[in-house]
Amino acid sequence: MLQPGLMMDRPLLISDVIEHAAAQFGDVQVVSRETHGPLFRYSYAQCAARARKLANALKHMGLTAGSAVGSIAWNNHRHLEAYYAVSGSGMVIHTCNPRLHPQQLIYIINHAEDSVMLFDSTFAPLVKGIAQHCPKVKAWVCLSDAANMPTVEGVANVLCYEDLIAPHSEQFDWPQFDERTGAALCYTSGTTGNPKGALYSHRAIVLNAMAGCMPGVVSLSPKDTVLPVVPMFHINAWCIPYAAPIAGAKLVLPGPRLDGASLYELMETERVTVSAGVPTIWLALMQHVEQHGLRFSTMRRTAVGGSAMPAALIARFADEYDVEVRHGWGMTETTAVATMSSLAPKHMELSAAERHAVIAKQGKSVFGVEIKVVDDNGATLPRDGVSQGELLVRGQWIVTGYYKGETSPLVDGWFPTGDIATIDAQGVMQIRDRAKDVIKTGGEWISSIDLESAAIAHPAVAMAAVIGVKHPKWDERPLMFIVRKPGQALEREEILAFLTERVAKWWVPDDVIFLDALPVGGTGKVQKGDLRKQYGGVFS
Ligand code: ADP
After folding, report:
1. Which among 34, 81, 270, 333 is annotated as catalytic?
2. What is the pLDDT of residues 82-100, one digit of tens each?
């Protein structure tokens, strides 16, 4: 007969995260770039006190357990307080991506039934445009003090955050409830159809945040200062706003300034040791650092994901700047990180280039998540590093379904990701492409990710993207887009010759189009859909 364990059954709750930080790391700093410019700093103890004030304010407004509070905001301290106050009260913080199409924003605010919306002053014009279409929102709270309030004409009940929380007590008894309760809601980007909501539970977030602290994952400890560039408005900034207080790491929030120069300055002045973001952010940072001959004095690690990190960029960080890239994979439906690349002692015998190639893969599943790849019939493919098929995941922080969704996306208890991957005998997963981005040519597949990574290795290339374009003979052929680095005179023949030396002959793109910039979406990813719309007919 099974023996029940004689251990306490304490729920994993988000309120405990901030109270832990307040009690154990009360003097550790949170630094935040205000939307109007200056840096603000306070401690975890003060952050917790203000989260309790906000919790009292929300209760006073009549919100109760289960209410949804939306946010359209940058990474800053007031947004952080809302993360804790809202979820800690048993309500749901619904983070909205401000770069969604306004119609989609209206859709998700109504779908989530947000009763209060928090917004940064940057987004006042956006709020002005959507407010009248969101009848369930009873107050629009600007994350600002009175002196920096924007005017939002025509919107009823616009409140100032500081005025809202000022009269309330710093004492609040966080309710205790089931750890499986919904805590945060994030909608997918809705590239096809309406966005779909992933409702993260307290348990999923706390477990994921604890996993993120592990040395083999993002690795956070009281010795660290962490700068999440990845937005708090999409996938909870990969749970770093929860992981940092668990670990006792100093937290630096960059506000609206995400350009290379601002990030570099923040990294240096705040002595950041770890950062996290998508590759496009690091491309811009690297360009700034290279152009000005700068060095990182304290930054030692950067967690990268959201799209594939090219080996050439991993090499630049590691070889020239001594910054280790932690390359992870995850999606809206996986709360945050699900797999992470890693090096073992055996890799130390490899050349630097071979080691970077290991990091360029998306790595092993983190404990708490399992992965497999399946063929078109759903049969599990061998872990041989070659057989490629759709990646499926299951685990402690993977969705079971979508918010108010009628049908389950799961297949035999596994979530199908829409990504095409291989897994090798050691469990190392490599994303070959998104199913919709794979280029099918003459019955064979070309990985757009591999082609882009090959192009990025050219010293004159700032950014690269490849799409499959309809072709009368081959079904599809690759078309490449290049953004040159400033002052570089790279031409079509040179980049094609460069690629010919690095990829199979039939992979070499049929044409190259040079652009000043690539269309980049709300989460820093190249919008290949936009490129397909505009250039999809060029070979027909
Ligand atoms: P969207 O990109 O549509 O906004 P998500 O933010 O949920 O949706 O992104 C998840 C997708 O991003 C994954 O399914 C995968 O295609 C891609 N992705 C995430 N991390 C990586 C990575 N390290 N390498 C390649 N692709 C990645």
Report:
1. 333
2. 999 999 999 999 999 998 8
Q: Average pLDDT of the chain? A: 96
Query: Do residues 333 and 398 touch, judged by C-beta distance below 8 A?
Result: yes
78 and 30 in one domain?
A: yes
State the pTM of this model: 0.94
Task: Work out the average pLDDT over 463-486.
Answer: 93
Query: Virtual CA dihedral for 257, 260, 261, 267, nearest 10 degrees?
Result: 80
Q: What is the C-alpha separation between 376 and 372, in angstroms, rounded?
A: 13
What is the residue whose two structure tokens read 């002053």?
Answer: 121
Helix axis angle, 77-88 to 44-60, nearest 10°: 60
Q: State the residue range of the domain holding 489.
A: 439-535
Catalytic pick from 440, 444, 491, 500? 440
Q: Kindly give the distance from the C-alpha atom of residue 484 to the centroid of ligand 1, in angstroms, as a whole number.
A: 25
- The helix/strand/coil state of 20 is helix
pLDDT tens digits for 397-444?
999 999 999 999 999 999 999 999 999 999 999 999 998 898 988 888
Q: What is the pLDDT of residue 197?
A: 97
Q: Smallest Cα–Cα separation from 334: which of 502, 133, 186?
A: 186
Question: CATH number of the domain that 314 lies in?
Answer: 3.40.50.12780
* Segment 227-264, tens digit of pLDDT: 999 999 999 999 999 999 999 999 999 999 999 999 99
What's phi and psi for 19, nearest 5 deg? Answer: -70, -35
Catalytic site includes residue 333? yes
400 domain-assigned: no
d(CA 123, CA 189): 18
Per-residue pLDDT for 515 more than 70?
yes
What is the DSSP secondary structure assignment for residue 37, as one 8-state letter?
A: S
Residues 327 and 286 occupy one common structural domain: yes
Ligand 1 pocket by Cβ (under 6 Å): 188-189, 191, 305-308, 327, 329-332, 362, 417, 419, 431, 434, 523, 525
